[in-house]
Amino acid sequence: MFMQIKTVDLIQIRNMPVPRDGKTKLPMPDHGYSTIVRICATRDGVRHVGLGEIRALNSLTGETPDKAYEIAQQLGRALVGLRLEEDDNPARATHALMDGVLRSEFGIAPETLLPERFYPAVRLGFDAALLDALARSRDESVASLLGAGQTTGPVQRNVHSRKFSKPSKILNSMMHGDHPTGWLRGRVDRSVKKSVSVLKAIALASGGDSDILEGVCYVINGGWTPKHVDVLTTQMSESAPLRQSSLKVLLEQPFPAYATGWYQDLLNRIAALDDPFLGRVRVMIEDGVRTAAGIERSAALMPHVDIKIVPQTHGSLFAIREALDRARALGFDGRIYLGNAGMNTELNSLLLASLALTMTQPPLFSADRKSEEPRPIRQFHPQLTTDPADRHRLFLPKGAGWGSELCRSSLEKRLRNCIRFSCNGIETKTTRLKAQLIAEAFDDSTLEIAHTREAATTDKDDNTTFTHEA
Fold it and tell me: What sign results for the dihedral spanned by CA atoms 438, 439, 440, 442?
């Protein structure tokens, strides 16, 4: 069986709240635009439309929105007319198709040695759209297509971003009723003393109760050396509140990716310590382990670390699963943090939640969200929803594929550019193409009244779009 790709639409769209007070520019142009990939394919003569989102962030993958849109045009043109050959692993089939396109258009083969994947966020957008179309043709969700047992959820949001620059503010907040469960995560600078102060404040506020808080994650991004970690563990050992607490400490990318010797020395020292308290210090890595080959190069670390996964840096869902399978074969049994949820918009949030449901152990998942004012302009509907009894439990919409459709209000208010590639040529007349896309989009105007009524009784945190996380 196969699906044949008939058309590829690329829709560059503003994915942040529409500016108010006469402003015409977004505060963060790099974060402000996404490209929606809309693929129309046929199977047995029946038309199916798949959606994906290219969320290009220069700070994350080196891709800018405009360059991503340019590369996407080359890939979209090459995909038209190709067949997606199905096999027993749908993610592998879409990955193989994109491998072929990258080889023909850019000369990049799977064995090509690159520091990172070639435009991974662009590739992920196409991979998501192909999986969506394939799932819709089978009348099942993408989560089900990928083998998830529970296809709608729940996904537990258990990582809460905080600003660690002011420990007293965190202490006061928790003392006045802010008791998040799971993990607190925030950036720290090279000051180990401040890092310990944060930990002490959280330990005092939580009372050492692991039912309230499991631990603290320090986002270091390669800024420390082994001396910093030595000072941290020494000061932790000398603190009575911390020794009495059950809090765990997670060091996210403490050293640069190339410093594998430092990582190995650190993990060996922690393992050799006859101190159960310091055994609660864990290390999470991301850089250098985004491919199966990268995992192989870090084989000695796998039994001792946790792994952070950001789908936009991997390029496809198959690449993520391939890397994790290789890690497990090398002894990895740690936690997985599905990162960058806060920088995702609606469609990639559905992808991230679907990926979470395929994992054997519940992953760490961001709890940060935002609301859009003055009125929500939806990109997609339906979206992720929360459990009324527990706002940190997420559920995916029911239905085939992502279970969500591109919304009319988003195209009317936020569309910047659009282009269509088909067997008949290229459609670049934005006005005509825009009118056709709007006509085919989901009419979400009827949802506005219901949303207004709901907003009057719902907490702000129950909205469905994510925001930038620390």
Answer: positive
Unique residue bearing structure tokens 């993520």: 320
- Say if residue 211's pLDDT is above 70: no
CA distance linking residue 57 with residue 121, whole number of Å: 8
pLDDT at 190: 76
What tokens does 206 get? Answer: 């939580």
Handedness of CA 409, 310, 122, 259 (dihedral sign): positive
Q: What is the pTM of this model?
A: 0.88
Q: What is the pLDDT of residue 38?
A: 97
| β partners of residue 9 | 38, 420
Q: Nearest to residue 330, comparing CAs of 289, 291, 296, 360? A: 296
What is the rounded distance in angstroms from the CA atom of residue 468 to the CA atom of residue 90? 31
In the CATH hierarchy, which top-level class contains the domain 155-395?
A: alpha beta
Q: How far is CA 108 from CA 67, 119, 307, in A?
A: 18, 11, 27
Q: Tell me the CATH number for domain 2-139+408-441.
A: 3.30.390.10
Would you state the structure tokens that stand for residue 29, as one six-digit string?
A: 């142009």
Of the two residues 314 and 379, the one the predictor is more confident about is: 314
φ, ψ of residue 76 to 5 degrees: the values are: -60, -40
Query: Taking the domains of the chain in order of start, what are their residue ranges?
Result: 2-139+408-441, 155-395
Query: What pLDDT digit, counting tens, does each position of 145-194 carry?
Result: 998 877 778 999 899 888 887 777 777 777 777 777 889 999 887 778 88
The count of other CB atoms within 10 Å of the CB of residue 456 is 7
User: How far is Cα 114 from Cα 118, in angstroms, rounded to an integer?
Assistant: 8
**Paired strand residues for 250:** 217, 282
Q: How many CB atoms lie within 10 A of CB 383?
A: 21
For residues 337-351, average pLDDT: 79
H or E segment to which residue 187 belongs = strand 183-187
The region of weakest confidence among 22-31, 46-55, 403-412 is 22-31
Cα 425 to Cα 32, 52, 80, 297, 433, distances in angstroms: 30, 22, 10, 45, 13
